[in-house]
Task: inverse folding
């Protein structure tokens, strides 16, 4: 429930990299009493050094897609492409090509945000899954999904037709794989579901993932040459463990035992986009535990998703790192939408938050088990968000300033743009919510903290306009000199010990 890691099986990173990370963690531990923990944000070798630039590029791509759509629709001759464009930069990159099925790998060029470099199986062969069975986790049958994902070479994995794949145990995916469900209705369910552990460059696209339950205490093959023992898994829909360059797009997720998507233990460079989340308690966990310092380098883009019926909390729940939440539609929560601890940076831009009728659950944000004195300098900001039915976002740190702008200062059709951008969230070609007929047998609704809402915050002078509140567009405070010096110091230490650890 709190992100406990699955038992390790795959080969660990090279020893000098582990040594570097461990030494850096010790250095940060001893220096942390002297300097605010918000400055230590360079701990993983593959994280982006300028996360604000990545967030700005996402917004630029959204604006460019919306502008292109407006220009084409304004012409007297409205061709088919103009009608297809939605302003969603991912979909507009490939979906309007009538010949996309003959150029599937173009999808790998359409990513945005921190996970945009995920190659998946680009450049590799097409592997067609023709067998929906999962009889043997040690010796998978050729033609099955399990046989495809464990191969060493890059593969673009597609499906011969509609199928439901009932896993016996965790599906352990090797690096440089794309699971591409376009053109078929593909359901993945059963034991363990999808595990990405110590891998990179994985794309999961257009599949349903639901009713995932714990499994394990068995041997599972992770590559053509390696079989290892796995303990009991958590029952996550997708578990991301110590991995990077991951992109999860256009999936439908619901009804799992633990999280729908969990990313922990130094994972970074992740984009979660265009998904349809429903019927679940703990939706998304980002970060292993408060004391795990390498997760300060976690960087995740959460864009164009629909958070829908039956959701309770953790959309996401963050520990450390930089989380960009942009242009999502939050239509339901029972406790809170975005929560966190251990000083994560939350950059919320252009989302729509529709509060529940419960008067005690109107706040979008929650600082978990943390007093206001501690979280007041955390950088949580709202920029252009639309807050409906009394919803309110409590900013802090650099996110403070003019907290809310009057509705008249924001383009009046912003809420309509959210509908437009997220209209195709979920599995393309299938029902957006396939969980109506699914019998849910796992999980209970429990609060993140026994103390209830620790985030707190008064609405104060929020500007309310027909039930909508628009977040501030105030720019963030420039990075301090201290942060820059410390960042360079950490980069230097990483360089020295990565290259010369063997000599020490």
Result:
């Amino acid at each position: 429930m709190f992100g406990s890691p699955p038992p390790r099986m795959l080969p660990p990173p090279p020893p000098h990299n582990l040594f570097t990370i461990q030494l850096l963690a010790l250095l940060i531990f001893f220096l942390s009493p002297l300097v605010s923990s918000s400055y230590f944000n360079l701990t993983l070798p593959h994280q982006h050094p300028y996360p604000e630039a990545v967030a700005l590029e996402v917004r630029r791509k959204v604006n460019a897609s919306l502008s292109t759509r407006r220009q084409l629709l304004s012409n007297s001759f409205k061709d088919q492409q103009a009608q297809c464009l939605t302003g969603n930069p991912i979909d507009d990159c490939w979906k309007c090509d009538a010949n996309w099925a003959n150029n599937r790998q173009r999808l790998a060029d359409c990513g945005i945000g921190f996970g945009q470099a995920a190659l998946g199986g680009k450049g590799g062969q097409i592997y067609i899954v023709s067998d929906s069975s999962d009889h043997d986790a040690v010796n998978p049958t050729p033609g099955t999904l399990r046989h495809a994902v464990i191969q060493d070479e890059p593969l673009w994995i597609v499906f011969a037709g509609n199928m439901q794949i009932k896993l016996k145990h965790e599906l352990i995916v090797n690096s440089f794989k794309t699971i591409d469900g376009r053109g078929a209705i593909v359901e993945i369910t059963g034991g363990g579901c999808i595990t990405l552990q110590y891998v990179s460059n994985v794309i999961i696209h257009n599949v349903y993932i639901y009713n995932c339950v714990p499994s394990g205490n068995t041997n599972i093959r992770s590559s053509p040459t390696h079989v290892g023992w796995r303990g009991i898994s958590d029952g996550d829909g997708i578990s991301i463990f110590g991995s990077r360059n991951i992109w999860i797009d256009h999936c439908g997720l619901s009804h799992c035992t633990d999280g729908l998507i969990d990313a922990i233990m130094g994972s970074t460079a992740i984009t979660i986009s265009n998904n349809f989340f429903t019927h679940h308690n703990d939706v998304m966990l980002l970060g292993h535990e408060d004391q795990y310092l390498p997760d300060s380098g976690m960087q995740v883009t959460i864009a164009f998703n629909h958070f829908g019926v039956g959701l309770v909390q953790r959309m996401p729940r963050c520990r450390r790192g930089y989380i960009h939440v942009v242009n999502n539609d939050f239509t339901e929560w029972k406790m809170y939408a975005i929560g966190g601890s251990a000083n994560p940076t939350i950059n919320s831009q252009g989302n729509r938050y529709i509060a529940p009728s419960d008067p005690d659950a109107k706040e979008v944000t929650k600082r978990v088990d943390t007093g206001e004195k501690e979280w007041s300098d955390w950088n949580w900001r709202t920029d252009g968000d639309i807050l409906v039915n009394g919803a309110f976002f409590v900013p802090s740190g650099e996110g403070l300033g003019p907290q809310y702008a009057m509705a008249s200062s924001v383009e009046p059709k912003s809420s309509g743009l959210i509908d437009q951008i997220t209209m195709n969230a979920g599995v393309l070609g299938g029902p957006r919510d396939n969980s109506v007929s699914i019998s849910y047998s796992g999980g209970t609704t429990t609060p993140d903290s026994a103390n209830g809402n620790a985030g707190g915050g008064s609405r104060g002078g929020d500007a309310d306009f027909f039930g909508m509140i628009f977040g501030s567009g105030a720019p963030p405070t420039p990075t301090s000199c201290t942060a820059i010096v410390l960042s360079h110091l950490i980069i230097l230490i990483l360089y020295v010990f990565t290259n010369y650890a063997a000599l020490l």
About this structure: The two ends are 40 Å apart (CA to CA). The chain has one domain: 115-474. The first strand starts at residue 125 and ends at 129. The chain has a mean pLDDT of 82.
